[in-house]
Amino acid sequence: MSGEHPREQPVARVEVDTSRCVSSGQCAVTAPLVFDQDEAGQVVVLAAEPGARAAELARQAAAMCPASAIRVHPAR
Ligand code: SF4
Questions:
Q1: Position 69 in a domain
Q2: What is the pLDDT of residues 34-57, one digit of tens each?
Q3: Does some domain include residue 40?
Q4: What pTM does this model have?
């Protein structure tokens, strides 16, 4: 054992349509490890291939997004 944390297995692929994003910020609040916002408030994806826990939060964020700008697909 190296003592390092093993890299978490990606379980999802996160895509956003920034042309739809209305900068409401729910995604960054709901899943802060997956989403951030730029200085204009537009969504920025921090983790496009999240592990299980982050992917679940990303799905919640997708469901809450008022612009339906977030898609969470199964990992390839
Ligand atoms: S919740 Fe949707 S509309 Fe709001 S910042 Fe995130 S992607 Fe944009």
A1: yes
A2: 999 999 999 999 999 999 999 999
A3: yes
A4: 0.90
